[in-house]
Backbone:
């Protein structure tokens, strides 16, 4: 399988499992797929202090999927590098199509 394993369909929303690397030299959303952990890899420039990396993560995912940042919630792993994001207002198929164009370049 591939990156589709990191995305779960909830009918009116999706959950995306990500692995975040904060403090990188550049932002890369998504930066790849970890097939062992079944997570989308993300690199952020903000450090994991006072929620700054989480804010940046939500901001970039909102931009990537064209949804409001208020439609994105970290449901699991807020203080961990392994997180689960609940995204409302986008379908499973839209997420797969967007990730496919980003990850298979």
Residues:
């Amino acid at each position: 399988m591939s990156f589709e394993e990191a995305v779960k369909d909830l009918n009116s929303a999706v959950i995306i499992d990500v692995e975040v690397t904060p403090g990188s030299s550049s932002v890369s959303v998504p930066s790849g797929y970890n097939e062992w952990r079944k997570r989308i890899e993300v690199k952020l420039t903000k450090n994991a202090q006072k929620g700054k990396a989480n804010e940046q993560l939500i901001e970039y995912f909102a931009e990537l999927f064209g949804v409001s940042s208020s439609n994105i919630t970290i449901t699991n792993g807020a203080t961990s590098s392994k997180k689960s994001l609940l995204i409302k207002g986008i379908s499973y198929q839209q997420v797969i199509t967007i990730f496919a164009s980003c990850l298979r370049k």
Notes: The mean pLDDT is 94. The radius of gyration is 12 Å. The longest helix spans residues 52-65.
